[in-house]
Amino acid sequence: MLADRHLIEKQPRQGHSVKQLNLTEIHELYDVRLVLESFIMEQICRNGLDNAVLLALQQRWTRLYEGLPEMTADPASADEEFHQAFARAVANRTMAAMLRDIDDRIRFVRIADITSAERLGVTCQEHLEIVDAVRRHDADKAVEALRRNIEGGRNKVESAVKEALASAHEIHG
Known about the structure:
- The chain is mainly α.
- 74% of the residues lie in helices and 5% in strands.
- The protein has a two-stranded antiparallel sheet.
- The chain starts with 7 loop residues before the first strand and ends with a helix.
């Protein structure tokens, strides 16, 4: 499972080793994520989305926003689920699988990103903007809000890597 998530590398006849974190690769994953999710947003705005899905997303993120400064138990998973709901809605299994793979590989960045009520509040606002734009079939606004949301996570890459390395050092140090 760890090898599937690109967290360890399997070496024939030598066992496994922890994969070294590569900032370039992580930024490349964010680039692919942005392109993929922008296309998904454009498709959804063009073709529509089931109102029940939109309502559920709106209610979930409104509740999280109104509950601040209390943090949800797992904001990283909630964020992943938000984005994956749109990927599933375009009914393209390959796109959905690609986004799941990217999410698995950058999960530690999300975990390090949404750690404060302030950051969760910004994420909630961006998600609610996306839902509103999708409801209005406004692809430009949906992609703009999506871009801010994804770039907010990308801006935490270096600090997330430092925190992951520090945490690993504490465990093994």
